[in-house]
Amino acid sequence: MLAAQFGYLPGFLWILIGAALGGAVHDTVILAASVRRNGRSLAQIAKDEIGPVAGIAAALAILFIIIVALAGLGLAVVNALAHSAWGTFTIAATIPIALFMGIYLYRLRPGKVGEVSVIGVISLILAVIMGRYIPGSALESYFNFDRNTLVWLIAIYGFVASVLPVWLLLAPRDYLSTYMKIGTVVLLALGVLILAPDVQMPAITKFVNGGGPIIPGTVFPFMFITIACGAVSGFHSLISSGTTPKMIQSESEIRMIGFGAMLTEGFVAVIAVIAATILMPGDYFAINTKLSFEQLAQLGFPVSRIQELSSMVGVDVASRPGGAVSLAVGMASIFSSLPGMKGLMPYWYNFALMFEALFILTTVDAGTRVARFILQELGGYAYKPLAKTNWMPGAIFTSLMVVGAWAYLISSGSVSTIWPMFGVANQLLAALAFCVGTTVIIKMGRLKYVWVTLLPMLFMFITTFTAAWKLFWIFSDKAGKAATPADVFTFQLDAALVAMMAALALVTVADSVYKWHGYLMGKREVVSSEVVEWAEDMEVR
Fold first, then answer.
1. For 532, which DSSP code?
2. Which residue intervals of 132-214 are DSSP H helices?
3. How many CB atoms sit inside 10 A of residue 107's CB?
4. How does pLDDT run across 340-360, given as a tens digit for each residue?
5. For the chain, how big is the Rg over CA atoms in Å?
6. Cα 506 from chain centroid (whole Å)
7. How far separated are the first and last CA of the chain, in Å rounded?
8. How far apart are CA 127 and CA 107, in angstroms?
9. C-alpha angle with apex 154: 39 to 363, nearest 5 degrees?
10. Which helix (H) or strand (E) holds 299?
């Protein structure tokens, strides 16, 4: 959504090419590698296949990357729900719904998936409808929060979700959101096909040369780090390893799940780009920046319908950066234009907001859990009991550290600082995953296929290292010009995080290249951690 500031064409081409030649390969290779190693995580595979130096560097890099990525995703939810009682109520209602579903399915009526599915879907729809009556009622004060309060509420949720058993909250919430995601995407695609809405954003804007109000810098490299999940996303490698492999029944499922799902996500990304770019450019920038209407007019993008749109959805949508609100407004515009849907735009807006927030929050709770596991594994080198993921004191301590880190980044940052950091973090993780995948292919003796992962790895490293270099100096410059000591510290911390992530990734790739040379020259014995049989005790933690 945010990359639309460059025009619709660069993002469309990156999604189209990136999803097919990058993201789908990335997800499939890591999924296959993890399946053949009893579901080991990406960090564990890096340690086993490349070596302890690369393994520890990769684990640290992944930890930093997850924290920054969660901050970027959480920021979008915070900006979307600030002073939006209807939206906040709807999202909050999904938590007790998911808890009830978990207890119902595992304790009250075990195995009754059909029953709990009907209950969950009906409850979701009721949550959207009932939310309409929250604004202006006695309950509004309980759901109308400012930005800082929402940050800590989401942090509390992330902590609780990462500690609770998977079956109680994470699994039913993800299962419930799956129905909603599939239904929404199908309906949105049909809406686009039936209505064929006009795209208002130019194919290319003047911001391709830099100076954009949302994302700093030029189209290269910043467009490639801004659009992630729809093209190439390193976060997928964390789920493709360690989690998804434990649900695979046969290797024949890998192609459909790894490659097919990523192509589907690319399709969803294209539909989302259409939904966001049907807004007038001035309205798009009014939603996604904090600039005044006069400043936007001076940039050549006058605001035209922002007041009308705010009235139609029932909440002021101006100055809500992060992409979630502009997408929700675009989706609601399409849905309400379908036959028989006129007048339902506020319901569709909050439904779209719930769709996006659930998408993000399922990533937040899963990502926090993965980061907690990595931190416990690293902490186990200093204190062995900490490495036991079922040791509750260790789980609580590490979860608090992870949640506190990404919550601080959200509270002290903005879209123009956090989102580029998230992009660099996410795409560096993708580059590391391609590096691990290349190592696995080399050790399998399949050299004729090595270009499949090597070429996208080189592209991702070149892109992200360039972005990291530019971002480091942007943050350093802002630190020098900051008006308060707090701002100076924040920008210096941002610069340091970018530098550390890039340095750790560089260590991993350097160690990998050194090992590749040894394997190809016959100077190093090829030892693989690949296994033939499944471990009997594999289970999702």
1. S
2. 147-163, 170-195
3. 10
4. 777 788 888 888 888 778 778
5. 23
6. 23
7. 33
8. 24
9. 25
10. none
